[in-house]
Amino acid sequence: MQTSSSTIPIETTDFQPEWESKGNSGHFLEKGKIDLSHGEILYIEDLVVSFDGFKAIKGLTLDILSGELRCIIGPNGAGKTTMMDVITGKTGPRNAQVSGRVFLGQTIDLLKLKEPQIAQIGIGRKFQKPTVFENLKVWENLELARKSNKSWRVALTAKVNQDAIEDMEKTLLQIGLEKEAYIPAGELSHGQKQRLEIGMLLMQKPELLLLDEPAAGMTDEETMQLADLLNQLRGTCSIVVVEHDMEFVSALSGETGIVTVLAEGAVLAQGTMEHVKNDPAVIESYLGR
Amino acid sequence: MKFRVLNCLFTLVTSLVIGNTFAADLSQKDLVQIFGEEFAAKQSSINKIIKAPPEVAAEVLAALQDESLLSDGKVVVIKTNEGYLDPISHVIVKIDESSLETPNLNNILRSDIETAASQFKLLSKDPEIREQSLNSLMADMSGLNVAIVKSAKEKESNAGLITKFNELIAMLDYPSSNEEDKIKAIQTMGNSSSAKVQEFLKGLLKKNDAGEFIEPNNTLRVAIELALRDYQSRKSRSEIVSNIFTGLSLGSVLLLAAMGLAITYGLIGVINMAHGEFLMVGAYATFIIQSIFRAHFPGALEYYLVFAAPFSFMASAMLGLVLEYLVLRHLYGRPLETLLATFGVSLLMMQLVRVIFGAQNVEVANPSWMSGSFMPFQSIFPGLLIPYNRLIIFFFSIFVVFITWLVLNKTRMGLFVRAVTQNRTMASCVGVKTRQIDSYAFAFGAGIAGLGGCALSQIGNVGPDLGQTYIIDSFMVVVLGGVGQLAGTIIGAFGLGILSKFSEPFIGAVLTKIGVLVMIILFIQKRPQGMFALKGRSAEM
Amino acid sequence: MNQSFHLNIPQREPILTTKWWMVLLALSILVYVLVPICSLLVPEGNVFHLSAYSLTLIGKMLCFALAALALDLVWGYCGILSLGHGLFFSLGGYIMGMYLMRMIGTDGVYHSELPDFMVFLDWKELPWFWYGTNHFVWVVFLILVIPGLIAFIFGFFAFRSRIKGVYLSIITQAFTYATMLLFFRNETGFGGNNGFTDFKRILGYSISNPGTRVVLFLMSFTMLVAGFIACRRIVQSKLGRVTMAIRDAESRVMFSGYDPLGYKLFIWTFSAFLCGIAGALYVPQVGIINPGEMSPSNSIELAVWVAVGGRATLIGPIIGTFMVNGAKTVFTAIAPEYWLFILGSLFVLVTLYIPNGVVGLIKEKILKK
Amino acid sequence: MLQVQKINQFYSGSHILRDVTFEVPKGSLTVLMGRNGVGKTTMTKAIMGVVPIKSGDILLEGKSIIKMPSYERVANGIAFVPQGRDIFPRLTVHENLLVGGASLKASKKIPEMIYELFPILKEMSHRNGGDLSGGQQQQLAIGRALMSQPKLIILDEPTEGIQPNIITQIGETLVKLVKEQGITILLIEQYLDFIKKVADKYVVMSRGEIIAQGNGSEIDQDGIGQLVSV
Amino acid sequence: QSKEPIKVGILHSLSGTMAISETALKDVALMQIEAINKAGGVLGRKLEPVVVDPASNWPLFAEKTRQLLTKDKVSVVFGCWTSVSRKSALPVFEELNGLLFYPVQYEGEEMSKNVFYTGAAPNQQAIPAVEYLMSKEGGAAKRFVLLGTDYVYPRTTNKILRAFLKSKGVDEKDIDEKYTPFGHSDYQTIVADIKKFSQGGKTAVISTINGDSNVPFYKELGNAGLKAKDVPVVAFSVGEEELRGVDTKPLVGHLAAWNYFMSVKNPANDAFKKEWADYSKAKSLPTAGKPLTNDPMEATVVGMKMWKAAVEKAGTTDVDAVRKAMYGQKVVAPSGFTLEMGNNHHLYKPVMIGEVKADGQFNVVWKTPTTIRAKPWSPFIAGNEGKADMVK
Ligand SMILES: Nc1ncnc2c1ncn2[C@@H]1O[C@H](COP(=O)(O)OP(=O)(O)OP(=O)(O)O)[C@@H](O)[C@H]1O
Ligand SMILES: Nc1ncnc2c1ncn2[C@@H]1O[C@H](COP(=O)(O)OP(=O)(O)OP(=O)(O)O)[C@@H](O)[C@H]1O
Ligand SMILES: [Mg+2]
Ligand SMILES: [Mg+2]
């Protein structure tokens, strides 16, 4: 489903992100809304990222349409994770040399925001290495991730309401961790943590979901289940998946979905799975014969 | 032997002094007064000695200085190898040894004696003694015989000393010279690097009680002022250099104190609150070696440090091994708990030292090659003074850094240490003998702290609290430089040292200390991981 | 898949279970009723008499316990090991001390309105920050605000630039140490090395009056209980969970949309606030406040109490404080030359053999059964 | 080569490994598979001596190794590529490899073979291990394991996060190591296609127990695909 | 009943920073108690020492005082070194009407009826020392550096000295006041400054540097070649014990002002030194190899002897009675003088100036002919005018 509606409200109730987009002119914009007037949710142009002279991304240009599920593949070290780091604010002027433009919608310059602000305006991210709150129980992990007002003042008096419980139940079932709901997340196995982290993202109800190798460490069947899950989400939010598992990518992209191949910090090829698979450059540097 | 030397001196002095018309006779009665209680009497007695015939004066003054002038309250004698010599009649006398005492002199009398004796020492064979006497004559020119100085200069061959002679003579002659000579004298004095000479020049610019200039001649006053200004600019240059040196030297002390911590904490991850106590152990080890040398090899006492340094390394390292084995081994990966346990250990170690060595400080002396100072480049940097012990400690700290660097970066052990620090289990899983590495590494860090303690014993107290004095500074240095970064530790230490030394003259020691701490806090705001922060992904998670 | 799955979580976790509420209640009754009786009514010499010595001793420990509790909140639950909590404690103490100094009035050795140390340093008038310190209400206000405010400012800069772990520990230590040196200076206006002492009265009551002592004691007890409940409440709230998440994986928390700054600042400031109160109650009971309280080793010791009792347990630090200080009191008297050996070994043994502190040990024992 | 006998293991009260018994024949490539959380990683850790085991025995070439600390097991010829890679983040790639040879007497030069397998490691030899991308780290971890000239290599999901052509290459390498150098391999893997290509023997775990094993060529016949999914 | 021992509290830090100085006082007090017991005790009763360790922690002084007075019920306490420790304990002594003997020189400005001060007041140490420096005999110093550790004793002393110097016509610009933080160990800059300052005329340094900072200070003086004859340093806190851990070579000739020096020659001192040496050996104290006596130790012993005499005079250990009996008590002190307790609770004391010798002892170069009455309320401090110089 392609959304061409002009704006999507991110929050209808009491949500007030603590940021102020300065210098965003052109469109009249309600606070807390992403301007999707051109249909793009994420827009990267000429992105260059270097670490003390080492260029991890060299002039990357990429746009993701609103509601799209985009798969990104590419050799190890191509800059996929780095790209996600930049989008989510983990890598920024604070710890690297970054130039170019990274926009969410038409108006929000992600390079200017901090991590929590980026998360609040609706970008969720799963890390390549699963990170969960080890000393909190599984349900608490989900509860914390749940979309809500995240200021400390509210947290002081916040209650876990019925809606939240229902959300959690649903998510626990989706990720198949209902039996583990009450144990600390630190005691989960690698794959279980992987799923819990995806669950946390679902709770976050992001507009744009970034998944860095979500299927790593899962069995084939689980991988397919995950693919189904992501396919179900299609439409409710935009998704970017980085993966090396070609079957998984195929299952996600289907026949028409676009797959982007990154190599050496730039786009090497882009097109349907079929197209990309047969691209000699991709075969050479990535797929192998 | 001594007798003969004195005789020699006599002939010299006699031949030197042309006329001694105003030499007054000296009697035993005058001499006995020095042994009394009355200050005024003692002083007048010394004045009489100075005015006595030079040969007698020289002999008595020399005897006073090396404490061989004795008296039983009635007769005064000089102790020589041949027996007790009556200084007046110059014959050996018989006297009851047990009742002999030295006079009770105070600073003032002693310095009077020294100045007076200096005149006679200008001809000494030893250039150092000649220099010393010149210096003390410059400091106090009253009652100086110009003739003696001038004839001594004739015999002088050392260029440096000749300059000094010239300066002294310029000062002595100044009041009585004509304008032309005065200009020359001002030039001579202006080029001098001695503070005393400058003071003399400054004194010439002052007004006397009647409100007239002491130097009434205008041109001369201008010349003096120019000379002083030139001196001043050399002086301020010298002050900057000297500040840098004191800063570096403070830095090297900080570095020595912090180096061990940089290893145990920065690399092994043990927040070692007992680090200061390892310094202390090093210092006490030095003390022990010194005591052993004093008792058994007094001849080699000068070189006890050569043994003390490795011994203090070993002592601290052994203790480190024990601590590692008994306590820290069980705490790896729990850094904050190492903090608590080592805090307990530090209490234990301090109290143990108190029980064994007493709560009081113990004495560790500088060997003579580490005491005193020298004054390099006086013509460029007048007044610049470099103490030997500071200089040696500076080089020692560089040496310690070098050893550390060598061990950590050029040996397999260093590599393994770093691997173990970063991921203990994995290191074990690739075959690193973690237990062994842990002990070695900690012992090495402790040993380096011991070396630091050995050095610190040369400039400060050796007591049970020694460690406490340095622990905070050590942590500051390590944190400022960036934990785990040896280079950072070095820059941090020297940076702090120089910073402190440049601000101390302006805001005082107390505010400097506060200021430096606040600066560190602010600095860490800017660079939360220290100066040499770890970069890249590995630092983030 | 099991579609009928239900998540059973309480609306909000209770601050204490009924059982513990009863224990607390019993304890309070005991303290509120028995302490006044035993110290005021029971005559001296009777076994049940609570001497002024024991009263101030326990009163002092109550204040320490409150400070330890405050430290546990930041250390145990937020992972910030502060080696500078002695500072907030002393600040509270100094503010209270200012009031007590003013209350000496003209009874000092110089019979001046100015505190004695100012007289003999030739000060002619009170420095500006002393204004109003003769009014109890203003002083209480300062006690409640200043330590927290200082903590807030310090915390804001530290947390904003993401200083963590040992770096934070060390700079809190530096901060305290610098303040200590500042307070040592006579010019700073806080009595230099001697600090404040020789207090006479508080709110018009003589400070050495047994009644006053009992009231101060009960105040300390009340504040400790209140502090405990407040901390419990915070820890059980969502805020507490987020803080724990920050402790475990700060960056993940940020990517979940939380800004750790606010959370850390709140916990940090609140902790300093509690510490300040503890210090303010401490001073009238021990009768002196001076920069020595800010010395780094005091702050480290505070952490030791927390560790001995058990981190992230809230009750642990209180137990730890009483244990360590009790041991100290006993051993400094019966083995004055060797008590440091005992104390030092205690720290080592506790960290080695009961890593989770006394409370952790008890929990383990109960769990095993 | 490696015999695991009746291993029982607990994590704070919960029974993770239950009487696990299997064998890795010398000179073979054995694959251990199973769903998430069944205890595969725990098994490898038990073999490496990272987690303590409650009962049972592990024999390497007939010699019991359970009393040995990890590094002695390495010295006896086991090498380990853990799940999650565990690269030393602040050592350079080169140093990471050197540490891999810690069990050898003196540090040797890094064999050319490793660089041939993973050219990227040579390229990046002076960068910090922690800065590498996930896949690069995985390659480094395998390279590091090879440094100790092992008789037995245990790899825990080595293909995780690695680009397809390198996966193929790793597969080929593993086979080569077994065939040409006589190294024995225990591989934990989920990726069935890959397993089929390389496995001599397979072992399936479920809930801490071995529920099936057989020859690599018979995986399809045995319907293992089903077993692993359930 | 009367055979029950009399308890004597000893309140000196045995750990922490002050242990370095206070440990010896505890030992000498124990020695004196043993001696008294050997001689039959007091009022026929033995003395029983109660030693506690306030651990250099000031609030602990108050707590331990309360313990000594209420739990152990001691009749008298000997203790404290720093002013702050005394100030901490003082309110408790006053509240419970206890009795403290305080043996250390201090800044004055105090006169409690519950304390007997057996150390010097500023006029018994600082002022005579400066007078000496200004005299011809002492070098006729014209300029003064007042150098101290930043705390109350140095500040007050220097304030008094400043006022005193002014009254002697010394110009403001000829006085340089400098402070260093506690535990300061780097004196390079300060010594360089002193050197510079001294070029403006005959200069003396009056040092109230405390404790551990002295060694680095003197070592630096030696480094810079500042000899005692050029710039004499007179110290008020450096005694025989402090020099124990010092290489005295660079110090020779520098001065200290005290009311007693170990090197004083008289029978009382010989006996005292012997007693201490024997005791150290018998108890195998860590310092037995080099037993040293110093001024506060002497003050402790004098105080205890006086207290014994006063108790015997009063016939009871009751504090008020003993206090009355204390006034006018006389003891032949090791200093060679007969010291008398004034009604201002301070001892009449002689003042001596000593020069450091190479062996760490002092050579007494000057002393007052008689003892001087203490002026705890210094006339140089505003606000002291008209204060009664006695305890009411
Ligand atoms: N902080 C950093 N410092 C230095 N180099 C870095 C840093 N972060 C990433 N790099 C380098 O940038 C390149 C891109 O890394 P990135 O993690 O984005 O790759 P990737 O595409 O995610 O690879 P993979 O598929 O293996 O996860 C790599 O060569 C990596 O070594
Ligand atoms: N440190 C731990 N503490 C407690 N339980 C743990 C711990 N680590 C793992 N477990 C539990 O042990 C079980 C087995 O975990 P293990 O990591 O061995 O699984 P795995 O088979 O490797 O799974 P995956 O395929 O996801 O890597 C899991 O149920 C997990 O919850
Ligand atoms: Mg990646
Ligand atoms: Mg696993």
From TrEMBL, chain A:
Give start and end of each ABC transporter domain: 42-289
Q: Give a GO molecular function annotation for the protein.
A: ATP binding
- On the tree of life, the source organism's domain of life is Bacteria
Quote the SUPFAM superfamilies the UniProt record gives: P-loop containing nucleoside triphosphate hydrolases (SSF52540)
Provide a GO CC annotation, any one: plasma membrane
Keyword annotations of the record: ATP-binding, Cell inner membrane, Cell membrane, Membrane, Nucleotide-binding, Transport
> Which residue stretches does the UniProt record annotate as biased composition, category Polar residues?
1-15
Which PROSITE patterns does the record match to this protein?
Answer: ABC_TRANSPORTER_1, ABC_TRANSPORTER_2
* Pfam families assigned: ABC_tran, BCA_ABC_TP_C
Q: Does the keyword ATP-binding apply?
A: yes
- Region (Disordered) residue spans: 1-24
Gene3D superfamilies given in the database record = P-loop containing nucleotide triphosphate hydrolases
Give the protein's recorded name.
Urea transport system ATP-binding protein
**Species this chain originates from:** Polynucleobacter kasalickyi
UniProtKB/TrEMBL annotation, chain B:
Compartments in which it is found: Cell membrane
Q: Which UniProt keywords apply?
A: Amino-acid transport, Cell membrane, Membrane, Signal, Transmembrane, Transmembrane helix, Transport
One GO term describing the cellular component: plasma membrane
What high-level taxonomic lineage is stated for the organism? Bacteria, Pseudomonadati, Pseudomonadota, Betaproteobacteria, Burkholderiales
What are the protein's GO molecular function terms? transmembrane transporter activity
The record lists the membrane-crossing segments as: 244-271, 278-297, 303-327, 339-360, 380-408, 475-499, 505-524
Q: Which residues form the signal peptide?
A: 1-23
Q: Name one GO biological process term.
A: amino acid transport
Name the protein family: Belongs to the binding-protein-dependent transport system permease family. LivHM subfamily.
Species of origin: Polynucleobacter kasalickyi
Q: Which PANTHER family match?
A: ABC TRANSPORTER PERMEASE PROTEIN (PTHR11795:SF447), BRANCHED-CHAIN AMINO ACID TRANSPORT SYSTEM PERMEASE PROTEIN LIVH (PTHR11795)
Q: Which CDD domains match?
A: TM_PBP1_LivH_like (cd06582)
Q: What is this protein called?
A: Amino acid/amide ABC transporter membrane protein 1, HAAT family
| UniProt xrefs under Pfam families | BPD_transp_2
Q: How does it sit in the membrane?
A: Multi-pass membrane protein
Which NCBIfam families does this chain map to? urea_trans_UrtB
Indicate whether Chaperone appears among the record's keywords: no
TrEMBL record, chain C:
| Principal localisation | membrane
Q: Where in the cell is it found?
A: Cell membrane
Q: Tell me the membrane topology, using the record's own terms.
A: Multi-pass membrane protein
For whether the record's keyword set contains Zinc, the answer is no
Stored CDD domains:
TM_PBP1_LivM_like
Among InterPro entries, the record links this protein to:
ABC_transp_permease, ABC_transptr_urea_perm_UrtC, LivM-like
Q: Which UniProt keywords apply?
A: Cell membrane, Membrane, Transmembrane, Transmembrane helix
Transmembrane stretches in the record are 20-42, 48-71, 78-101, 136-159, 166-184, 214-235, 261-282, 302-326, 338-362
GO terms under cellular component: plasma membrane
- Keyword Transcription regulation assigned to the entry: answer is no
Q: List the molecular function annotations (GO) for this entry.
A: branched-chain amino acid transmembrane transporter activity
This protein is called Amino acid/amide ABC transporter membrane protein 2, HAAT family
From TrEMBL, chain D:
Which named protein is this? Amino acid/amide ABC transporter ATP-binding protein 2, HAAT family
Keywords carried by this UniProt record: Amino-acid transport, ATP-binding, Cell inner membrane, Cell membrane, Membrane, Nucleotide-binding, Transport
Protein's GO biological process:
L-amino acid transport
- Quote the InterPro entries the UniProt record gives: AAA+_ATPase, ABC_transporter-like_ATP-bd, ABC_transptr_urea_ATP-bd_UrtE, BCAA_Transport_ATP-bd_LivF, P-loop_NTPase
Q: What species was this sequence derived from? A: Polynucleobacter kasalickyi
Family membership, please give it. Answer: Belongs to the ABC transporter superfamily.
| SMART domains the record matches | AAA
Any Pfam family from its record, for instance, is: ABC_tran
Q: Which GO terms describe its molecular function?
A: ATP binding; ATP hydrolysis activity; branched-chain amino acid transmembrane transporter activity
Q: Gene3D superfamilies attached here?
A: P-loop containing nucleotide triphosphate hydrolases
> Where is the ABC transporter domain positioned along the sequence?
2-230
| Keyword flag Cell inner membrane | yes
PROSITE patterns in the cross-refs? ABC_TRANSPORTER_2 (PS50893)
- Highest taxon above the source species: Bacteria
